Amino acid sequence: MNDFNAVQEKRCDGHLFARTLPIGFDPNYDQCDKPVQRRISFPVPNFSPPSSFRLSRSRPCVTLDSEEFTGKTCELSLYLYDGASESKIVQLFRSADEPFANTLKRIQISLSKKMGSNCKRSKNNSKSDVAELPSVWKQEGSCAVEMNISDISCGALLKEYCNNQIQLRIPVIGCDEPLRLLIEANPPTITSVSSFDNLQANVFAKIPVHVQVGCLFATGVVIDWYADGVLVQNDSPIYVPTNNDIGKEVIVCIRPYRTDEHDGEGCLEAYAFTKRVEPYPENTLLAIRPEWTKPRLSTDKNFRVLTYNILADQNCTPSWHPYCDEAILLKQRRFPLIVHEILSYHADIICLQEVDEHIFQRLLQPVLDAYGYAGYYSSKKTDGQMEGCGMFINSKRLEWISCDSHELKSVLPTDGPGHDRWGSSDDIYKLLKKRPDLEEIILCKLGHILQLAQVREKTTGTEILVGNTHLFFHPNASHIRTLQMWSILRLLAQAKASSTDQCIILCGDFNSSLINSCGKLLIEGVVPTNHRDLKNHLNAFQWGERGRRFETATSDDDFPELSVRDNFQQMNSAIIPAPAFTHLIPGFSANLDHIVISNSLVPLNHANMPSQDMLSFMPNANAPSDHVSLLCDLAIVP
């Protein structure tokens, strides 16, 4: 062989993609971390498949930092092609320090088993013939030289590839000539592809769709979007379909690359979304809030705050919402609509409740990140719950100082009378010890949390303490919610101890109006003994299926007065007058969701609220949650 490149151009039967995987990396990533059922072959203009690699030029190989290969795995994927098509024939996972001669023999055996019966046999060979040993050749100048591989390992061969193009010659039983394979060592590699519900969610006009991509041996990735084969978005993890796309199939093409070394030619993957683009279903709330969906001026110095219980998927079932068409309850339809509503408001601070962990990770976080938001998630600690609270801030304007999550029960008094000086601690301790049933429910069964974040406005340096919570839902548990609110006020006081003039914003689904016990404690700093339903609920509440059982009282205990006045900063609702409802289901409506602020903040205005003439129940085809989002603009007191 006098000219290695000439031989390549004359005939090359395929490629061996060889990757040295990091220690601990799952070698089954291609099947486990990608929606392989949606992967397709898709012709992309100006992009070549592996069968037309320009391998006559050198491609630098990426090696791992350490020259020691012990513990690493070599992934070897062998593709053969004929013309413009290619197919994977062999895939092996071998130790990186295995002698490459042994690895080659394994490849030869696999090829003989899978191809021998399909290969053209020479007249002088039979199927039982023993093939010659494979060999390895490298380019030195204008000549190809056979390498001695008796003492070289898989990993060392990849290192050798850094300086030389490598070709394998593998005789296969039944084939006239040895197969000639070019090695592509550590090419840019797509290791994971994810999108909401693995590309099976509804795709709507006006609502963004996205993909997240993980890579090895790459410095970046180009993500292009096609609608019925036509390029509609270049190099973006996000695409917002238009009305022109309605009825069309959406395909995303992904090309990893290495700057100045490897353009990703031949490494592209394409995936098709299951559902074609649908018309956007008008959102009832957005329709009555046109002023709140306009882009905000750069001169707007007010803080826009959004709180929204988005109805966790685990709670959105036909048994919980029998009045709904099952199709509108599906997460594939609801959550893209929710994301669109959230983004439409251009809020600076976003507090979400009933957030499924996988919805946060696979949808909310990546999409809002692409639109300039930084997110923080906290899971509820209650057994069997995989939902919690999510908080986002506009990272162009705000930055995190700290983010923490606190179990509300963690600050309840447990050391006995006299050990805790915070307001009403002794009375709460005595109540819990007198009522072990209540103590067990709060300490063992409930894991409600408060997200606490200190954020700073980048231009002025103004600091804001933001709380986000979701209190116990049972309608006959005002005594439990009041104790939870006591914990929240204590946590706010502890977080604020270092700053006397810090602004406070508390958002959430309190499962109570502000005139009930927990709201009175929050707004006024004190709740009288047996206020409203406290005594009745304390003595009659029993834990049961969904917490709905309410039976005759079995005791006659008093719920004590709770006061936090000595540690209290005046708080007020930012939504005035109070809405008629924020939660609406057949037979029940109530104002459960709130944005409450300290006196250092002034509410300027808030978004319009719907009437029951507009909504008979929620969720529905035009309202994706069973709660109404709350939105307001705030200014700092000069």
From TrEMBL:
Domain called Endonuclease/exonuclease/phosphatase: residue spans: 307-627
Any one GO CC term of the record: mitochondrion
GO molecular function: 3'-5'-RNA exonuclease activity
A Pfam entry, by short name: Exo_endo_phos
GO biological process, one term: nuclear-transcribed mRNA catabolic process, deadenylation-dependent decay
InterPro entries to which the protein is assigned, alphabetical: CCR4/nocturin_mRNA_transcr, Endo/exonu/phosph_ase_sf, Endo/exonuclease/phosphatase
Gene3D superfamilies: Endonuclease/exonuclease/phosphatase
Domain of life: Eukaryota
Protein name: Endonuclease/exonuclease/phosphatase domain-containing protein
